[in-house]
């Protein structure tokens, strides 16, 4: 999918600030964005004029809270998350591990929200992160919910690159895994995306769109309580079906 360069550069700028955590000069921003100084200056001037950046006394720039306020207002009114967050939190609390909500966009899983485990060693992720469909428990759960024709169309485009030595990289292996996922009602990722992580996920449909919930944690801890995590995930999905107008389980 092609990107709009100016939009991508603007998003890169804010992600740069999130990573750097400090005010940056025009030169530093130009280098971080790999953009000409003239283009960076035009972008910064526009964001300053719109109230998204301000200039410090050291002639560096830093974001104002305007973007945070806008994002907060959007997040507070999200019709999907408003319904699903209590179930995400319940999944986290009852499993003791991080719970993630995701959906498919094109050939990726997009994380919509995460409820992080309260344990000191835990899996962490942020809303908006993207993952490969073939190597992620949410991705495989979402693929398992598709019918033959739609699934064939996606698999024909999917780049099944290896992330670890356990990643499924062949169409035959993935189809076998998806068939097992449909049979038992949940998908698994054991060291397929990150060597020391494991996850289980289950799909559900709401308002005509497929979503999935997952439990993710350190592989040793996950495997020690695997059956309990499967039961907790099933219970939360059943509660969602009972309480909300979801289409399918």
Automatic annotation (TrEMBL):
One of its GO terms (molecular function) is DNA-binding transcription factor activity. It holds the Pfam family IclR_C. Residues 66-249 form the IclR-ED domain. GO terms for biological process: negative regulation of DNA-templated transcription. SUPFAM superfamilies: GAF domain-like (SSF55781), Winged helix' DNA-binding domain (SSF46785). Gene3D superfamilies: 3.30.450.40, Winged helix-like DNA-binding domain superfamily/Winged helix DNA-binding domain. This is IclR family transcriptional regulator.
């Amino acid at each position: 999918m092609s990107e709009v360069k100016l939009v991508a550069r603007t998003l890169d700028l804010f992600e740069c600030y999130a990573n750097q955590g400090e005010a940056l000069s025009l030169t530093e921003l130009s280098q971080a964005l790999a953009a000409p100084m003239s283009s960076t200056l035009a972008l910064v001037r526009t964001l300053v004029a719109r109230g998204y950046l301000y200039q410090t006394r050291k002639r560096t720039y830093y974001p104002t809270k305007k973007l945070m306020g806008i994002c907060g207002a959007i997040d507070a009114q999200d019709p999907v998350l408003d319904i699903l967050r209590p179930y995400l939190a319940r999944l986290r609390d009852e499993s003791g591990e991080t719970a993630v909500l995701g959906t498919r966009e094109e050939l990726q899983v997009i994380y919509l929200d995460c409820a992080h485990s309260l344990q000191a060693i835990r899996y962490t992720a942020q809303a908006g992160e993207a993952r490969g469909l073939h190597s992620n428990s949410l991705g495989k759960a979402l693929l398992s919910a598709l019918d033959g024709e739609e699934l064939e169309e996606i698999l024909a485009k999917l780049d099944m690159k290896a992330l670890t030595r356990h990643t499924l990289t062949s169409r035959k292996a993935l189809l076998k895994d998806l068939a097992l996922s449909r049979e038992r009602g949940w998908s698994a990722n054991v060291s397929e995306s990150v060597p020391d992580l494991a996850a289980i996920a289950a799909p559900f449909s709401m308002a005509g769109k497929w979503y999935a919930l997952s439990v993710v944690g350190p592989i040793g801890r996950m495997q020690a309580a695997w059956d309990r995590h499967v039961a907790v995930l099933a219970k939360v999905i059943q509660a969602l079906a009972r309480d909300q107008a979801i289409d399918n389980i």
